[in-house]
Amino acid sequence: MPQPCVDTGLGGPFVPLAALPGWTRAMHQATRAQCLGQVSRATGWYREALGLAFDRVDTGCTDNEDACLCALVSSTLCLSGLQADQGQLSLAAATLADAHTALVRLMLGPPRASAWRKAAVRYSHDTHAALVQHWAAHGPDPVIEGALRAGCLVMNAAARAVH
Fold first, then answer.
1. Under 8 Å between Cβ of 82 and 43
2. Measured between alpha carbons, how far is 115 from 38 in angstroms, rounded to an integer?
3. Which helix (H) or strand (E) holds 72?
4. For the chain, how are helix, strand and coil distributed in percent, rounded to 5?
5. Helices 39-59 and 21-35 meet at what angle, rounded to 10?
6. Residue 130 near residue 92, CB atoms below 8 Å
7. Residues near 120 by Cβ (< 8 Å), separated by ≥ 6?
8. DSSP structural state of residue 108
9. Whole-number Å distance between alpha carbons of 29 and 33
10. Ordered DSSP codes for 88-152
11. What is the pLDDT along the chain (163 residues), one digit of tens a residue?
C-alpha cells in the first residue's frame, strides 16, 4: 500500500542539492519508493543517502559545508520518519540521535572549522526539534535524552567560555 510522502520540514520531501548529485539521486529513489509503499527499498535508499552525507562530514570536505549538513539532516529526518512509521521507534530515535550528536561534535570542533560550526548550529535546531517531537509522540528514550543533553552541554560550555 502506498505511503504518504515524507516532508522533512526543510521545504518539501527533501531539498535537491546540485553540490551533491549522488545524494540527490539516492533521495529521489528513496522518496519515490516510499510514495509507492516500497518500504524496504525506501529504507535502503535513505540509508545510502545518509551514508553519503556522513561520508562528506567525516572527510571534512570544505567545498560546501552547508550542503553537506543539509543533506545529513534531510536524510536523517526522512529515514527516522519512515522508521517511526514502521513502528521501529528505538531505531528512529537512534537515527535522530546519531545526526544530532554529529552536529554537536562539529560545534565543538577546532576554531579553523568555523564554516562547519556555523552550519552545525543552524541545522542542529532541526535535529533538536525532531528529537523533542519524537519524545513527545512516543515517550522518553535514553538515546534521545543523551543526544539532547549533549546539545545542552555544548551550549553551556560555549556560554561559560564567553564569561
1. yes
2. 37
3. helix 65-85
4. 75, 0, 25
5. 160
6. no
7. 69, 103, 104, 106, 107, 109
8. T
9. 6
10. -HHHHHHHHHHHHHHHHHHHTS-GGGHHHHHHHHHHHHHHHHHHHHHHHHH---HHHHHHHHHHH
11. 334 445 555 445 677 888 899 999 999 999 999 989 999 999 999 999 999 999 998 887 767 899 999 999 999 999 999 999 999 999 999 999 999 999 999 988 776 678 889 999 999 999 999 999 999 999 999 999 999 988 775 544 444 443 2
Phi, psi (degrees; rounded to nearest 5) at 42: -60, -45
Specify the residue for cell string 521501529.
88
Helix, strand, or coil (residue 109): coil
**Could you give phi then psi for residue 123, rounded to 5 degrees?**
-80, -20
At position 76, the amino acid (one-letter code) is: T
Give the orientation angle of helix 89-107 with respect to helix 142-162, to 10 degrees: 20
Q: Are 84 and 138 in contact (CB under 8 A)?
A: yes
Residue keyed to cell 545510502: 48
Candidates 119, 128, 113; CA nearest to 71 is: 119
